[in-house]
C-alpha cells in the first residue's frame, strides 16, 4: 500500500511552542501497585455496567465486579485482588460523579481461574465471546466495546492496526509495541480470524523506529501481516486520517471504513484481545504515559481505577506549581479538577502543566487569517463553523458539515487569536444532535 500524507495537520513533535518535554526512553515501563483502586462502572460507550459485588467481599484479580446489561456496554473487572471496601459515587473531575467499586489491595495479585487455547482451537464466535467476557473496549480513546467491533455486519478484507500515536508526548502504544510486541502480533492474528480478513497492516509513525523494527521482525514469517510507516503528523492516529494515509481513500460521509471492507483497531486493544484469549485475562491493566511537569516522567503499567494522585506520587510529585491536569492527549484530552479521579480503560496519557507553561488562552476577535482552514485535516471551515455556533445558526452549521469535525483541535492550536474553535464546534455538534433527537 502506498504511503501518502493527508491534507492539513500539524507537526507537533517539532513545535518549539510546545514547551513540555516527553519521555526519552519509551522502552522503560514501570508497574504501580496502589493501596486502593476506585474502579468506575462507566468507562465505555453505552450504559453503565451493573455492580455485582458488595462491601466486605473478597475478590480475585480479573474477577467480574460489574456486568453489562442487554444494550451496548462492557463488563468491568477487579484490577487487583483484595477486599471491596465500598461502592460509592466519586467525582471524576469533569463535573460528574460515577459509581465506583473501591478495592483495598492485598498485594497477592491472585488471578481468577484462567484458560489456555491456541488460535487453531478457536472459531470467530468464540473469539468474540471471550473478548466480550473480558470487557475489552477501544483503548485508543473511543472505548467502543470491542466484541461489537469484531462482529461486523460488513465483509472485511483488511484490518489496519493503529499504532500511530500522534498525540505529542504520549508513548504508551510505542512502549507496548517494544515491550509486548509478541502479544500484539498474536492479537493481530486473532482479530484477522475473528473478522475473516485476509490481510492486516500495522501502522506505526516513522519516528518510532524501535517499535517498527520489533513488529517487522515478528511479522516476517506471516504473509498476512505487514508493517507500514506513516508520517508523524498530527492527527495521523485518527481513523479518518490513518485510513486516507494507508489506502488513499476517504471514509464515506456518514459511513465507516467497514463499508469499504476495512476494520481499524488500536494496537493496545489488539493486545488486550490476545490476553482475553490466552491466558484468558480480562482487561484490568494498561500502559499510561505520565508526562509534562512531573519530577520523573514515566510509562506506567497501572491497574484500572488507580487515582491520579497515586500516579503523580509514583512520578515523585509535581515539577513546579500545577495549573492543569489532562487525562488523554495534549490536543484531545480532558482537563480534570480533582486528584481523586480514577484512571480508566481509556487513559493512555496523564499530562501535567504547571503555571509557568500554562499560557493565557483568552480569545480575541478573529483576524480572518485562515490558518485554521489550512490545518483542518477534514477540509472544513472552522472559523465559519464557530461563527455559526455563536449565532445559533444550526442550519448553517449543518451546511458547513459540522458533524464531520473529528475534534482534533488543530484549529484551536494554530489560531493566533486564541479562539476556542474546536470547543465551540463540538458544542454545536451536541446541540445539533439534541435538536435532531
Largest sheet: 6 strands, mixed
Helical residues, percent: 25-40%
User: Which CATH top level class of the domain at 12-18 and 120-277 fits?
Assistant: Alpha Beta
Any idea what the CATH architecture of the domain at 12-18 and 120-277 is? 3-Layer(aba) Sandwich
Low-pLDDT runs of 5+ residues are none
> What integer value in Å does the Rg equal?
21 Å
What global shape is seen?
globular
Strand order of the largest sheet: 1-14-13-17-15-16
Mean pLDDT: 92
Distance between the termini: 41 Å
How much of the polypeptide forms β-strand, as a percent range? 15-25%
Annotated CATH topology of the domain at 12-18 and 120-277: Rossmann fold
Q: CATH homologous superfamily of the domain at 12-18 and 120-277, by name?
A: NADH-ubiquinone oxidoreductase 51kDa subunit
Structural class: alpha/beta
How many helices? 13
Order of helices and strands: EEEEEEEEHHEHHEHEHEHEEHEEEHHHHH
Let me know the number of strands.
17
Amino acid at each position: 500500500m502506498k504511503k501518502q500524507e493527508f491534507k492539513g495537520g500539524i507537526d507537533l513533535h517539532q513545535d518549539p511552542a510546545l514547551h513540555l518535554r516527553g519521555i526519552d526512553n519509551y522502552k522503560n515501563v514501570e508497574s504501580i501497585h496502589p493501596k486502593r483502586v476506585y474502579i468506575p462502572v462507566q468507562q465505555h460507550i453505552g450504559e453503565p455496567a451493573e455492580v455485582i459485588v458488595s462491601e466486605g467481599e473478597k475478590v480475585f484479580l480479573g474477577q467480574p465486579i460489574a456486568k453489562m446489561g442487554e444494550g451496548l456496554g462492557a463488563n468491568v473487572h477487579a484490577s487487583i485482588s483484595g477486599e471491596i471496601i465500598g461502592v460509592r459515587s466519586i467525582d471524576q473531575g469533569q463535573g460528574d460523579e460515577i459509581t465506583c467499586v473501591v478495592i483495598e489491595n492485598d498485594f497477592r495479585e491472585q488471578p481468577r481461574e484462567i484458560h489456555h487455547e491456541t488460535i487453531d482451537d478457536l472459531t470467530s464466535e468464540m473469539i468474540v465471546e471471550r473478548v466480550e467476557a473480558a470487557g475489552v473496549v477501544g483503548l485508543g480513546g473511543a472505548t467502543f466495546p470491542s466484541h461489537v467491533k469484531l462482529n461486523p455486519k460488513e465483509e472485511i478484507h483488511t484490518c489496519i492496526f493503529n499504532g500511530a500515536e500522534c498525540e505529542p508526548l504520549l508513548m504508551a502504544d510505542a512502549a507496548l509495541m517494544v515491550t509486548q510486541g509478541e502479544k500484539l502480533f498474536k492479537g493481530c492474528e486473532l482479530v484477522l480470524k475473528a473478522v475473516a480478513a485476509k490481510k492486516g497492516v500495522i501502522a506505526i509513525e516513522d519516528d518510532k523506529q524501535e517499535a517498527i523494527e520489533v513488529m517487522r521482525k515478528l511479522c516476517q514469517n506471516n504473509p498476512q501481516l505487514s508493517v507500514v510507516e506513516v508520517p508523524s503528523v498530527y492527527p495521523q492516529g485518527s481513523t479518518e486520517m490513518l485510513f486516507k494515509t494507508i489506502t488513499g481513500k476517504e471514509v464515506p460521509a456518514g459511513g465507516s471504513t467497514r463499508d469499504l471492507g476495512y476494520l481499524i483497531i488500536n494496537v493496545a486493544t489488539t493486545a488486550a484481545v490476545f490476553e482475553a484469549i490466552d491466558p484468558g485475562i480480562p482487561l484490568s491493566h494498561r500502559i499510561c504515559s505520565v508526562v509534562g511537569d512531573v519530577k520523573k516522567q514515566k510509562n506506567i503499567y497501572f491497574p484500572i481505577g488507580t487515582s491520579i494522585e497515586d500516579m503523580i506520587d509514583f512520578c515523585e510529585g509535581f515539577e513546579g506549581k500545577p495549573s492543569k491536569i489532562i487525562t488523554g492527549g495534549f490536543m484531545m484530552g480532558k482537563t480534570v479538577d480533582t486528584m481523586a479521579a480514577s484512571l480508566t480503560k481509556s487513559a493512555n496519557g496523564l499530562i501535567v502543566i504547571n503555571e509557568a507553561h500554562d499560557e493565557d488562552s483568552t480569545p480575541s476577535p478573529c483576524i480572518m487569517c485562515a490558518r485554521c482552514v489550512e490545518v483542518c485535516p477534514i477540509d472544513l471551515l472552522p472559523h465559519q463553523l464557530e461563527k455559526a455556533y455563536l449565532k445559533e445558526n444550526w442550519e448553517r452549521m449543518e451546511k458547513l458539515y459540522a458533524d464531520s469535525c473529528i475534534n482534533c483541535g488543530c484549529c484551536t492550536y494554530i489560531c493566533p487569536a486564541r479562539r476556542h474553535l474546536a470547543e465551540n464546534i463540538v458544542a454545536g455538534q451536541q446541540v445539533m444532535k439534541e435538536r435532531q433527537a
